[in-house]
Structure formats: structure tokens, C-alpha cells
């Protein structure tokens, strides 16, 4: 199964993103083998930088390094998938500026919700940055449920125990992109969050 075959945007209503960059991971996989989903912000402008695009992909490079920092032995994004962790984004189109409008996050959360529903055995969600956190909270709001993650800075929220529909949820910082190599304090916290998530996956 490929998520890209199941997840489509039909009318592209959002005004502050690049629709020509629309992407959903096209990796062939077995949905039942996925036990964790890592959700980052938005797709990159170039297809070559997206998840599962190869060794030159900046998203793959920084995410692989984040897992290595956490003590997980991986060499590429396919190794991460073999660990049971699927990589995707909350917003499926490319950014036009630094920030993404709330309306865009709400709209695209509908696609993320369909994407998460593809994986029946997920135990862990890693929310990498504010956009991913907002997207999951929007999914919860639409269903009439409380926020998955309460309001507050990620720094203060990290380390607390959050659950959503039986899944353990980890709010963290964005790991996809070149800024990962610059923000060393956040890089350390990302590694801690990934390590904590992997410990949950190892439990029987």
C-alpha cells in the first residue's frame, strides 16, 4: 500500500501554500507493520528533499540523524520504517512563507486524519513542531473530543504523558530541514523525545 494512492486533495482551497508541491509519502509498505507515526510540518519545495526520496533528501538526512542521536541504529528513512515508524507531514503542500495559517492547518488536518486511519496498529504519535500539534488538536476538535495536547509552550509540555485514542502522543520540535543542524539545544530534546517514543514501542 502507498499512502499517496489513498490521500488526495481535490479542490486545493488553501491560499498560503504552494499547491504544485502537494505530496504524500509514496513509499510501498504494509500498514499493519506501522506502530508509530512521526508528523512534521509541511512538505519541502523540492520533491528530492521529501521523505523517502533518497540519501540526498534533506528531510531524510536530518530525520535519520535525529534517530541516531536517540540511539537508534538507522542509515536511511527506509530503516526508520523498518523500525515501525512512518514519516509524514501535517501540511501536504509547500510553504510560501515562514508561518502557515491556521485555516490551512485545519483544512489539511482532514488529509492527515485519513492518513492516520490507514494504520490500525499505531501506538505512538510524534508531533514535530507546532503545526503538527495544531493539526492533531484540530482532528480532535472536529470529533468533539478534548485537545490531544493542551495549550502551552512545547518546552513545558515535553515530558508529560499525553494519550489520544489509545496512542501515546509526544509533542516535540521540528526535525525536518536544515535548521535541525543549527538548533543544537532543540536537537538534544528531539533525541530525548524519540528515545522515549521508541521505549514505548518496545513494550509488549
Please sum up the structure shown.
Helices cover 38% and strands 17% of the residues. The chain is an alpha/beta fold. The protein has a single domain (3-202), classed as Uracil-DNA glycosylase-like domain (Uracil-DNA Glycosylase, subunit E, 3-Layer(aba) Sandwich).
Keywords:
single chain, six-stranded mixed β-sheet, alpha/beta, 204 residues, 17% strand, Uracil-DNA Glycosylase, subunit E, globular
**What is the CATH-assigned architecture?**
3-Layer(aba) Sandwich
Relative strand content: 15-25%
Largest sheet: 6 strands, mixed
Order of helices and strands: HEEHHEHEHHEEHH
Walk me through what this model shows.
The protein is an alpha/beta fold and 204 residues long. It has one domain: Uracil-DNA Glycosylase, subunit E (3-Layer(aba) Sandwich). 38% of the residues lie in helices and 17% in strands. The protein is built from 8 helices and 6 strands; from the N terminus they run H-E-E-H-H-E-H-E-H-H-E-E-H-H. The protein has helices spanning 3-6, 58-69, 77-82, 102-116, 130-142, 154-157, 179-182, 184-202; strands spanning 17-18, 36-43, 85-95, 124-128, 162-164, 167-172. Strands 1-3-2-4-6-5 form a 6-stranded mixed beta sheet, with helices on both faces. The chain starts with a helix and ends with a helix. The model has no long low-confidence stretch (mean pLDDT 95).
Furnish the topology, listing elements before pairings.
Elements: H1 3-6, E1 17-18, E2 36-43, H2 58-69, H3 77-82, E3 85-95, H4 102-116, E4 124-128, H5 130-142, H6 154-157, E5 162-164, E6 167-172, H7 179-182, H8 184-202
Parallel strand pairs: 2-3, 2-4, 4-6
Antiparallel strand pairs: 1-3, 5-6
Helix pairs in contact: 2-8, 4-5
Amino acid at each position: 500500500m502507498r499512502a499517496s494512492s489513498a490521500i488526495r486533495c481535490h479542490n486545493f482551497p488553501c491560499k498560503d501554500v504552494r499547491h504544485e508541491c502537494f505530496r504524500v509519502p509514496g513509499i510501498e509498505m504494509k500498514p499493519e507493520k506501522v506502530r508509530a507515526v512521526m508528523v512534521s510540518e509541511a512538505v519541502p519545495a523540492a520533491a528530492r528533499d521529501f521523505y523517502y526520496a533518497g540519501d540526498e533528501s534533506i528531510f531524510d538526512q536530518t530525520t535519520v540523524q535525529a534517530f541516531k542521536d536517540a540511539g537508534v541504529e538507522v542509515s536511511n528513512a527506509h530503516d526508520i520504517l523498518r523500525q515501525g515508524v512512518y514519516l509524514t507531514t501535517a501540511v501536504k503542500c509547500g510553504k510560501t512563507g515562514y508561518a502557515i495559517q491556521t485555516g490551512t492547518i485545519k483544512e489539511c488536518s482532514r488529509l492527515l486524519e485519513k492518513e492516520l486511519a490507514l494504520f490500525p496498529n499505531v501506538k505512538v504519535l510524534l508531533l514535530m513542531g507546532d503545526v503538527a500539534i495544531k493539526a492533531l488538536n484540530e482532528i480532535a476538535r472536529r470529533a468533539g473530543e478534548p485537545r490531544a495536547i493542551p495549550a502551552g509552550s512545547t518546552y513545558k509540555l515535553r515530558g508529560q504523558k499525553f494519550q489520544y485514542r489509545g496512542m501515546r502522543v509526544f509533542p516535540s520540535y521540528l526535525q525536518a530541514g536544515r535548521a535541525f543542524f543549527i538548533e543544537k539545544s532543540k536537537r538534544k530534546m528531539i533525541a530525548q523525545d524519540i528515545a522515549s517514543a521508541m521505549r514505548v514501542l518496545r513494550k509488549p
